[in-house]
Amino acid sequence: MIAGQLKKIFDPFVELPVSVWENFEKLGEVNTFPKETILKSAHTTEKYLNLVLSGSGGNLIWNTNNFVCIDLAFQHDFLCDYMSFTLQKPTPIEVRLFEESTLFRVSHHRFQQTLATGNHGEKITRIAAEVSFIEKQQQQIDLLTKTAKERYLELLQTKIGIEKLPLKYLASYLGVTPQSLSRIRSEKY
User: Whole-model pTM?
Assistant: First the structure.
């Protein structure tokens, strides 16, 4: 099950035999967590690479008097503090689930085993890093060139389950107040 989902996620970037993904699936485990679970606290080191099978979450950072959402993850997205995971150093990022979620998790230690085996591990890691970089750069471009309404409408079209996100996290991600997001949501499209 996980192998097929991983293959589907990565095929647009690199087509690998399903056996590669079956081997990768053996490295992890599937867990379900309740709403508002903190997967990684701020100023700690990321121990897991998570693939969201169902639910949603995001990366948050504390700013003055509240959390700011800097990244969102939905079904078939990876959710972790990737910088901390890669460097194995603490960062100020908190990784939190926004609703009950089921995740496929691979520990850093097991992930490193994938790299050591030479079984396409380095290629998978490179593609994941490239995709992450491209998505983050596109997010930065969108923040500078699109309105909050335009970004919200794009999220509605591309992300499964966005309507279930708590308003405060989605508003923070879009860079608007919850009241402004409520007005955007109430408009007819």
Answer: 0.88
Could you give all domains of the chain from N- to C-terminal order, each with its CATH number? Answer: 2-181 (2.60.120.10)
Which residue in 72, 64, 93 sits closest to 170, CA to CA?
72
Which of helix, strand or coil describes residue 63?
strand
Whether the Cβ atoms of residue 143 and residue 120 lie closer than 8 Å to each other: no
Nearest to 59 by CA among 76, 26, 34, 84: 84
**Alpha carbons 109 and 123: distance in angstroms, whole number:** 18
Contacts of 115 (CB under 8 A, 6+ apart): 121, 122, 125
* DSSP assignment letter at 144: H
Nearest to 132 by CA among 189, 19, 51: 51
Q: Which of 14-23, 123-132, 170-179 is the least confident region?
A: 123-132
Q: How far is CA 49 from CA 19, 102, 120, 152, in A?
A: 20, 13, 17, 27
Q: Which residues contact 141 (CB under 8 A, 6 or more apart)?
A: none
The answer to whether residues 167 and 182 touch, using CB atoms and an 8 Å cutoff, is: yes
* Dist. CA 25–CA 67, nearest whole Å: 33
- Write the pLDDT tens digit of every residue in 110-163: 888 776 666 677 777 788 788 888 888 998 999 899 999 999 999 988 887 888
**What one-character DSSP code corresponds to residue 164?**
G
